[in-house]
Design a protein that fits this description.
The chain is mainly α. The protein has 16 helices and seven strands.
Length: 360
């Protein structure tokens, strides 16, 4: 596998081709790249204007101005700081305690203590998550393990955050998604009102397959389960409205004492342990790390450091393939779920699990 020398995107990514001098087509088309940057900046400025209006409208209306899903990663930690300290909002942090590693918990406790922010932690039954993780890894859709599991798992904790915000009359849920997260078809800065107020988020394939009970499926957000007239919060991604630089955020959270060290700010170490198994499965299926296109896009648009990922990208892939260092989580994850390599299969068509694209 070869990578673009300017943005590191692998040549195995669909739609990518490298020239003889090792530059990908995405970097070579300077006109298109400039137009893309200009369009993205225009959208960011519009989002920024809307975000200021949203904060002004919510400020002082209740016990809390906003709820922040807190995973313990650098982005959600820095988001807490900006909202609580720089913007002086009343923030409630919320953590769904499933598969969060000890290092991320250390970040959470340190940041909450430093910022003096209220926090709710919810620990749902682990048996449900084990069941759903196992099913999804054995029945991946064609985009692979990371897409399949993340875009069933994410709506679960997003729905938990929305439900808590409704219960506490909090008008805004503010998530630490970086530019490029989540999939654009799901969200560009904000979940639509149609999505929040009309759409059942239950993945259609899970409802059809017969493996999950009605109680299991009720874990997914469905606005019809809430009384008519319930005020549904807006769900926004502030990093889609602010200038974003991955390296700067990693540096700032350490400087501010919100995390203990650069290791604690590193997404490689603070990510969900199950993610190592997902990356392993996709490396087997596709031959490249599924996060490589996302980080390459950040590099291409000046939001991540080329030299950092030139070293870390291949190192991460090496640890995953050899199951060394943090890559040992591949083996732990397979043992926890009772899986073998042969069980990691793509069996479903594209979009089989997409729960939140349009009302059904």
């Amino acid at each position: 596998m070869k990578r673009c020398k300017k943005c590191l995107v692998p040549d195995r990514v669909p739609g990518v081709s490298l020239s003889n001098d090792g530059v990908c087509n995405l970097c070579r088309d300077v006109t298109a790249l400039d137009a893309e940057n200009a369009k993205a900046e225009e959208a960011r400025r519009a989002n920024e204007s809307d975000f200021h209006e949203a904060l002004a409208a919510c400020r002082g209306q209740g016990e809390y101005d906003c709820l922040v899903p807190l995973s313990g990663g650098k982005d959600s930690i820095f988001l807490l700081y900006r909202l609580a300290v720089e913007l002086k909002l009343k923030v409630l942090a919320f953590t769904v305690d499933i598969n969060i590693p000890p290092l991320a918990w250390d970040n959470i406790r340190r940041a909450l203590s430093k910022l003096n922010i209220d926090h709710i932690s919810y620990s749902p039954a682990a048996a449900f998550y084990r069941k759903i993780f196992r099913y999804l890894l054995c029945n991946q859709e064609e985009r692979g393990a990371v897409y399949t599991l993340s875009y069933v798992y994410a709506p679960l904790f997003e729905g938990d955050a929305i439900t808590l915000a409704m219960a506490k009359d909090i008008p805004l849920v503010l998530a630490g998604y970086s530019p490029g997260q989540p999939e654009p078809e799901r969200m560009l800065y904000e979940f639509s009102r149609e999505l929040l107020c009309e759409t059942d988020w239950t993945p259609p394939e899970l409802a059809r397959c017969g493996e999950f009970s009605a109680e299991d499926l009720e874990r997914f957000y469905n606005p019809q389960h809430h009384p008519a007239g319930t005020q549904v919060p807006r769900y926004l991604a502030p990093f889609h409205a602010w200038p974003y630089n991955q390296e700067e955020i990693m540096r700032r959270v350490v400087e501010l004492g919100l995390v203990a060290s650069s290791k604690h700010a590193n997404p490689i170490h603070s990510n969900y342990p199950i993610n190592w198994l997902l990356m392993y499965s996709d490396l087997l299926s596709f031959g490249y790390n599924p996060y490589a296109p996302e980080f390459s896009s950040l590099i291409r648009h000046g939001k991540a450091n080329l030299n950092y990922w030139r070293v870390m990208g291949p190192l991460v892939d090496f640890m995953i393939r050899r199951r060394l260092g943090p890559g040992r989580e591949v083996t732990r994850g397979m043992d926890w779920l009772g899986l073998t390599v042969e069980d990691l299969r793509i069996t479903k068509p594209r979009g089989a699990y997409d729960p939140v694209i349009a009302p059904r």
